[in-house]
Amino acid sequence: MGRGEASQSKGLAVCMTALFLTCLLPLVSATGGGAVLDVSSFSLDDFATTEDSTYDLQFDLVEQLSSDAEVEVQVVLSSLDGTPFAALSQNLTVPADSTLPVQFGLTSLPYGYTSVQVEVLGEVGTANSTQTLTLSRTLHRLKPIDISLAPAGQILLSGLTSEGDLTGNVSLHDGDYLLTEVAVVNDGDFSWTGTLSHSLLVQSTFDNQTASSFTVDAQSSLIVFFNSTLQLQEGSATLLLALNSSGDGDSSDESRELTLQVSPPPLPLLTLSFSSNMGEITAGDAIEWNLSVSNSGTLDFNGQMVCTFGQDTLYDAPFSLSLQSATTLPLQSTARPDLLSCSVNGMRISEQSMSSVSLAFDIEAAAFESAGSSIPAVLNGPWHEGDTAVFSMLVRNHGEHVGQVVLLCETLGVEYTSNLLTLDVDSAGEVSVSLPLSMVGDQAVNWSLSSTDGSIDSGLNGTVMVPVAAQQTLSPKITSVEWDAVHGISFEWSVEMSEGIDRPVRIRLGYTESGLDVYPMDYEATLTAGSTGGVYTVGFVDSDRVSIRATPLNWTTGFGFSSFSLSVPDDRPSYSVDFNPLSTPNRPLPGQTGTVTVQVRNTGDIAGAEGYLVVSTQGGLFLGEMPTDALAANSDSNYQFSFEWPNLDSAPLKVTWVVAEDSFVGTNSFQSGVVAVEEASFEFPWVGLIGGAMLAVALGAVIRIYQNRSTDSALKKPKKGKESKGSQKQTKTTNVEKIQIGCPECDRQLRVPADYGGQVRCPDCSNRFEVTPRIDTSREPVEEEPVEEEPAVETDGKVEIHCPECTQSLRIPGDYTGSVRCPACEEVFSAEQA
After folding, report:
1. Within 13 A of 271's CA, how many CA atoms are on the CB side?
2. pTM score, two decimals?
3. What rounded mean pLDDT belongs to the chain?
4. What are the structural domains of the chain?
5. How confident is the model at residue 648, as a pLDDT?
6. What pLDDT score was predicted for residue 722?
7. Is the omega angle on the peptide bond into residue 791 within 30 degrees of 0, that is, cis?
8. Which of 243, 260, 261, 425: disulfide with 237, CB 3.0–4.6 Å?
């Protein structure tokens, strides 16, 4: 029975094994379908990238055997080293001769590269170039920006010389400049652009720098360099490095703070000592010391050596000493009680150095102390820039020998020394020194007493602050310039001096002539602060500018102009003089009193001056003189001169107007008068004359008839009738009144009968004009009865003469013997000759 059970167990095991092996066989059968994966439909390209943690994987299954295929699709995700970390699967039925889309959602994808492997199992087909049963692709999930600075231990700090070269020292030393090298790391898959700041704190002083914008590529790093502008100092310094905001969400790795330890620099180690070899000496003798200097340090010394003996400087010059060497300096002075000391400076030396040495020297000599105030008195204040201050001090010799002393003052790097004062024992005197003040504000003056053969008591030196105000200024100015015809040029001036003490000033007032300044007024005056001025009259000069110049005497002014000028106004009187063309009377007769009018004008815009007029003939015959008043601007005035008319046919007159230094001339010719005449050249009224003649003939006929009827005296009556006719005619002529009329062109007065009507020609200007009768001739009574007696013939006292040139008839007074001018030909001739 046991054997049966054993064989039964063996059979069961064989069956189970067969069944298991059956499960491992591909799910194919003679009647099943065949599915494959279409490569072209696979949505994932090899090494595709994504920024997300998920991916939607899609592809198609294609049935090849025209029968439904039962398949299982498996998706395995693994790292690049082959380690799987996720698996997905789906059981699907692919219909015969069709395509089935398949989709897998891949989640929790890690940063970096992931291998995606797909396999089709079950009723599968046959793989070919476009269809497969397995497919593997790589998916890259991009890592976001991750920017950081290298850790503090990876930041390189080096020392630089002042020339920018590496010192070669492992550690940082005092005096070094700092070179910083820091790496900016980008662990992300995206490039980053930004800046890095560098802040170095050395002994409360910051050196802040920012590197210009730079770019760090993905999965890489960049080294950024900084050179400090501050020298490191012994002790500690702080360095802060910081990136600008990267946006990666983690700012803890974007800044670094470092504390730097700065070691002392290599230093010289100096030793100073005095030595001397002096015999018997007395105060004032020359003495000499030797200064020995050695350098046992680790660096050459290059600095300054200063040695003093009391207030005297024996040595003050650059001093150099190589390491592991020594030298000796001689020092000379005069013997007196004082302190000799030497020291080095200008470079750091080791703390173990003997940087200074002193020696007290004692000898019997003079000793000086103050005899009053322990500080000098400062005189001549208050002070302005450019002034001179006087320092004065009383000193006394309380020593054992006669000695000499001076007062030393130093300011702005310049030393001033008083005269040497020699004092016997227990005697006193004054030392004083003058020095310029050239700095506005409080000017420091270092003072001290000094002696070559005596000691100076302690405390007799120091510094005095002298308050110095800004320089006083002079501002000359001309406020107004005037010109008038009486005084010429004058101007109002002023000199303004700023606040301060009274000052001597040279003032010059004048004008510019041919480009040069001329100063008739030149004087010195002491001005007080404020304005000083006045009015200066230059007079009549040929200049277009006036000027003032003010210059300080023995002191210095501040910035400003020492002179001022101003233009002289251009306005001047514009004079002219002339005759009125008409005289009074119009044509004065020679020897008759005639009057002419002279008109003076000022057409300028300024008043004129007084003057005088002189009238004469152009031949120089003086006729009159008259003063003239000053004319206002743009005005005129008339002056009349009456004088005996010169015996000339035409009187050429000249007037001279003298104003100040100028004279103006006007001329004019006036026609002298001639006797007014009735001319035969008048155009006679023929109609009136002929009518009158006919009337006379008729009248004569009537008289003739009447005479024939007379008695025995008829023989005489015709004769009387003729005489009567002539008498009537003569009576008629003499009884008509003559009147004067004026020529409308030249105002010449002419005498014509009152009953005359017709044209008249002026003998002067030859103008013809009409004249109307003043008496109606038609109303004149006609004598019808003859006059028995022979009447006396009345005459007007005129005689008729003829022009010798053109035979023109003229009537003139019978007693006139002067010159006559013919109105027709303008010939002038003597009445007696005619």
Report:
1. 9
2. 0.41
3. 83
4. 28-141 (2.60.40.10), 147-262 (2.60.40.10), 270-361 (2.60.40.10), 367-467 (2.60.40.10), 474-567 (2.60.40.150), 575-671 (2.60.40.10), 684-736+775-792 (no CATH)
5. 84
6. 41
7. no
8. 260
